[in-house]
Specification:
The protein is an all-alpha fold and 128 residues long. Helix content is 80%, strand content 0%. It has four helices and no strands. It has helices at 6-34, 41-60, 65-87, 98-127. Keywords: Membrane, Transmembrane, Transmembrane helix.
Length: 128
């Protein structure tokens, strides 16, 4: 019985997980289109788009790890922006706790710092 490489299993698992999350996102969008979401169709569209955004790097990984990393960075920035927008949105009738706003700020700064450090490491490796 031939041994299957771990990298091949990772690609298969990534594809299956990405397909499941993408299917969940498409289902959420269809639910929002049907009008079955009580909170409003915008929240259904946002949830479906969020699932599709998270599924994109998983679906791209078996074909190109480089593209998957770029899509993951894009998804993280989009999620950080969405968190900040929801945490500080003035048009909502309820006030958000300071803990929620602090968590959104910390997540945004963490994503920005991680990407900045990765770019700095890449530049220093090319320059040295």
């Amino acid at each position: 019985m031939p041994k299957v490489k771990v990298h091949t299993l990772t690609k298969i698992f990534s594809s299956l997980l990405g397909a499941c999350i993408a299917l969940l996102g498409v289902i959420w969008v269809f639910i929002a289109v049907s009008g079955a979401v009580k909170a409003g169709p915008v929240s259904g569209y946002a949830a479906g788009a969020g699932f599709l955004l998270v599924a994109a790097p998983l679906l791209a990984f078996p074909f190109s790890a480089r593209i998957a990393k770029s899509l993951l960075v894009l998804a993280m920035f989009a999620l950080a922006f969405g968190m900040l927008w929801l945490a500080f949105q003035p048009s909502l009738p309820i006030n958000h706790p300071a803990l929620v706003q602090a968590a959104a700020i910390v997540f945004g700064i963490t994503v920005l710092a991680r990407v900045g450090l990765a770019l700095r490491r890449k530049r220093s490796a090319l320059g040295s």
